[in-house]
Amino acid sequence: MITIVDYNAGNLRSVKRACDAVGIESLFTQDPDAVAKADKLIFPGVGHARTAMATLVRTGLGDAVRHAFQRGTPILGICVGAQLLLDSSEEGETPGFGFIPGRTRLFRLEDHSLKIPHMGWNNVVVEQAHPLLSTLQTGDELYFVHSYYLDPAEPRHVYATTDHGFRFCVALGRDNLFATQFHPEKSGRVGLGLLARFASWDGTPC
Amino acid sequence: MLSKRVIACLDVRDGKLAKSVKFVDTKDIGDPVHKAKQYYDDGLDELVFYDITASSDGRAIMIDVVERVAAQIFIPFSVGGGVRSVDDASRLRLAGAEKINVNSAAVKDPELIHRCSEAIGAQSVVLSMDVLRVTASASIPSGYEIVIHGGRTNTGLDALQWAKRGEALGAGELVVNSIDADGTREGYEITLTRMIADAVRIPVIASGGAGRPEHLYEVLTAGHADAALVASMVHYGEYTVSQIKGYLAGRAIKVRDTHLQTSTK
Predict the structure, then answer these.
(1) Where are the extended beta strands (E) located within chain B?
(2) Hey, which residues of B are catalytic here?
(3) Tens of pLDDT along B33-57?
(4) What kind of fold does domain B5-263 have according to CATH?
(5) Which of A49, A162, B10, B31 has the fewest CB within 10 Å, making it most exposed?
């Protein structure tokens, strides 16, 4: 059973439906206790980083996610749910959880033919093997929509990258934590495949 | 590098595909979800549903369509037509649409773009603009005017200025629909598309006039569009989505690799 953290993230229901489609049992909850005790967590996110973090703090869900991470619960963060795992975000200058050192930064691209948000399908390069990426093939494309990007401080936390004016991290991880900037729930079969891998993941990085 | 997107647009009336959409496969019987699934399986990158329902009953049916689409199709899709308030937008968003398209209502009330953007995020707000070529004048310096009500009503708004204003108000993407090209199947309005794509930082979807795959090639290269909308050329069965994407790939346009997608079926 996968527990989806419900803090009004815009993609909550899409994530649930994608889990349904690949036969993964899931539920969403606003109850911090249920989050803290979950077997497996999806931490979704679409929207404004500071607003999201404020909601997490106010509801106690933030503490519950932190507790779950510390007790080894496998966690999959998506989009803003990935960005908040770093120390801080430039979107609203908010602190994040700080599970992984680094910062979420605004795209500042000099080439004005490159659009912001980074919206659409882009191919992802696997930088380090990870169980959740094992079915990904070279050239596979995933769906992105974001104006801020993940900038983890240490290469050892970077599992995949893509290119939009420069190469940046799109999947990061540490221990029982894995998170993607792209949206597996909107990335066709490749994305559904990643969710299916998460369902059978034991929470070890290799 | 981002791929160029091929987006199919389906007109829906009272929960059924509008009559303008013809079928090769009669099994479809006008179900937009069935048609959408067929395109999804064929490698489509994104979908737009345009609700042309006139009645409020029909709009409730649209929510049902959106929910059914969201349960089966795991690519982004947007819904337009009749979005007049933040409530409308939120309802569609909650039902599973990634993005909502605002058009006429935003012309009458530009702050609607801002309110929707605040409520559901700029990335989920698409400003769809219907554009007519006119003689350039002091009030319409670009020579392109915004029209509403399916092109029947002129607004006096300059298309280029409206596009920039929409971006400033918080739209995350633009659909530039040429009323002149629409239905001709002779190609997109390249000059218009390029002018707007070069003037804004947000992605631009070209719309109106697609009849052959080379039209998409033209608008994605010379027209500087990020994505191209197709309707009748795929609805009538003349071309499939994978044929179009295959053609584009053959001309060195980066498109999402469809064979890799299907191989993991």
Answers:
(1) 5-13, 16-17, 46-51, 77-80, 99-102, 125-133, 144-148, 153-158, 173-178, 204-207, 227-230
(2) 11, 130
(3) 999 999 999 999 999 999 887 666 6
(4) TIM Barrel (3.20.20)
(5) B31
